[in-house]
Design goal:
This protein is an alpha/beta fold and 634 residues long. The chain is built from 19 helices and 23 strands. Helix 10 packs across helix 11.
Length: 634
Amino acid sequence: MNGSLGGHGAATRPHMIVCGDNALAQRLTKELATVYGQRLCVVLPSLRGGDHGPQIAALVGAESLSVRAVETHVPDDGALRAAGVEDAAALALTSGDDQLNIHIALRARRINPRIRLVIRMFNRTLGRYLEDLLDRAVEVNHPDVDPAALDASTTVLSDADTAAPSLVAAAIVGSDKILSADGLLLRAKERTLGTMDQRRPLCTLALLPDTSDADEGEADEEEEDDQGPVLLPPDAALRELPPSRGAVVLEAITRPRPRPGAGRARRLPFQPLKELFSRRLRYSLAAMGAVVTSLAAVNWWMTGGSPVHASYIVLLDFFAINDPKLDEPYDQQVLQLLAGMAGLMMLPLLLAVVLESYGAFREAAALPDPPRGLSGHVVLLGLGKVGTRVLDRLLEMGIPVVCVDRDPEARGMAHARARRVPTLIADVTDSGVLEAAKIKRSRALLALTSDDGTNLEAVLYARQVKPELRVAMRLFDDEFANTVYRTLRDTYPHAQTRSRSVSALAAPAFAGAMMGRQVLGAIQVGRRVLVFAVVNVRANSLLEGRTVAETFREGTWRVLALDVARPGERRTDLSWMASADASELEWELHPGYVLRPRDRVVVAATRRGLGTLLAAGPDHGLPPLNPPGPAPPS
């Protein structure tokens, strides 16, 4: 086991630990070090090899960051202690091996019962059991630990759950500057002061430089820099500026009212019956009727009896349930033989057509086709783990979806069938599949299959059909994803394109979980960062007993929303992973509202401002947010 140090020297103990050398570990380390300003230690087999060892080594060697590494093939107790697990605030386990992550988590919890654990697991059911086990172990074996510090002690996440919100956001608003609070999408959007009131923004996050060639760049976020954006400006100052001045505002993509039949095809109740009585079945029934009618007419002519009786006798012969006509004339016997032979030929054909029609009926009843008048929908390619989570989110928001997957037994197929989502079981690379999904009238395309080539081919074809279409694709290789994004952006400058690896989409959610459930996310404004967090008002000298207007600190923090749920009914986590049928946050607060001890608020703050705000109250478990320097370019 070897230790290597970067940043501020070997004597500095990390505030957080990341285990793994995969793409998620590298992305998570960069996110925590640059966006949240944390001191980190990465535990990995080697900085010189492995999956992402050299990329992590570049972070370790960066002088502006405080990242060190412990190299070990087996992350045992010795490796964890060398990484500083005894006094670390959080530990992230990013390996794709669930059993290995569980083993390390149990070791870390035994050494440091107060550490916050964020575990990547594919088995969600086992993950929920593991959360309960690790938290209960602390309560039983360490009764001296404050229970208030345990509300976020263990968090189990999967790539699918964490990547889904970003993919949905890309499909709906086409923006990377997205976070979620209480199930609502919040986006940071650049607008002018003269037009921003048309969208009723929640607040102004930043005032942009008044020159187009201003350098946004190299100053620390807390320093006054005329060339960079001014964070959290007062509303009074904005009214004195010209309407053409640019600003970054926070807008809510509100939860739409559920529409009858949202997310499903508009089909008439009798339409599946049309598939049951298919054209072949109708032709077969008509042919059988013609044969029976002809034989009945001949029988009636020969016997001279009633037409009804003649038809009845022919049907008995046709279905081979009549007695042999041994004592009848020869013409009657010949007619009976002909009716029996016709029945032998027609009944198997009729049975085959009935079975085919029944299969078509079941398919039509379970997976409807896209209706003719469908428009403004999202075309979703792939119903695997990620695709199923994205489908859930889109349906929750009342957005119509058309799914395409070539595997009829895909993971999300049963869910699409239960929700009556229009679904095409076909290979998207085949001719005419995207046209059948009504791609020309869709609002966005999400290519989320497990094959990079399929996703890229589908996106390129969709771009030719509809150049202005908003697309987001899932690509496994991060460098390839960036290259594809730049190429599509340059080729189609007026269209919105997002190409991301799952690790890049999952890293912000993992970072937020490591910071604690108080942190909802972070948004970069230029090269500066605003953090959005949930703060309890009780015993906070900067909030309790003050009005919303009095709590505002220019350039430092602002109260955005109030949790109106009863204290005993509040959810701990207000991020994307906790969706609700009704909103618990009130965003339009009166400036004169006095914050009471039982209140809980959502604030937007700089990293240093949030640290100051939390230090004034009794909140537990949140590591300090240090300003390490400029954030990386987006």
